[in-house]
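[stage:ingest] chain + small molecule (heme C)
[stage:ingest] validated
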Amino acid sequence: MVRASGYRRMGRVASLLGMGVVVGLLAGGPLVTDQLSRAEDKAPAASAPAAASKKTPLSQFMQVKLSYAQSMLDGLVTEDFDKILRSAESLGELSQSEQWRVSNDAVFRQYSSEFERTVKQAMKAGKTRSLDSAALAYVQLTMSCVECHKFVRNELVMQAKP
Ligand code: HEC
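[stage:predict] done
[stage:export] tokens:
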């Protein structure tokens, strides 16, 4: 059995669009995501410039990560496989970067590779234009965000450098 039949769509020129979105997210990601991540008491959120400059490079890096994950959900609900693929690729690149390695802890690295595994699944699903696989990969990816954060909060906070 090969690929699902009537499912295929002609390659729309959505790639350009997708790239635009990704680049846009890189530039404006923190703005979009601020309200989501720090809805609690942590950020006064009164003056935007002050809040932005308070962000460390690491936290900006992490915010970009959230933007790509959101972009993937966007791709899923609009059945834009190109967007799914691009956001997965971008997440994959982030996870390869130096900044991702905030800790050398073995468990942290395990969470990292779990994350990379789900990112690869999402990339594959984007390439094969399989919406169900992409949705599953997204759920697993999200779980891996939550699990690693749980670990970071509970175990790693003490060792983390400011
Ligand atoms: C392998 C571990 C790991 C995984 C997986 C992971 N993160 Fe993170 N994340 C971190 C660490 C470490 C920090 C920094 C924590 C800190 O600032 O103390 C962080 C911080 C963040 C922040 C906060 C940035 C800020 O403003 O301080 C956001 C948002 C975020 N991650 C989103 C995500 C999303 C979305 C995913 C899944 C797509 C994800 N993370 C997956 C480790 C991970």
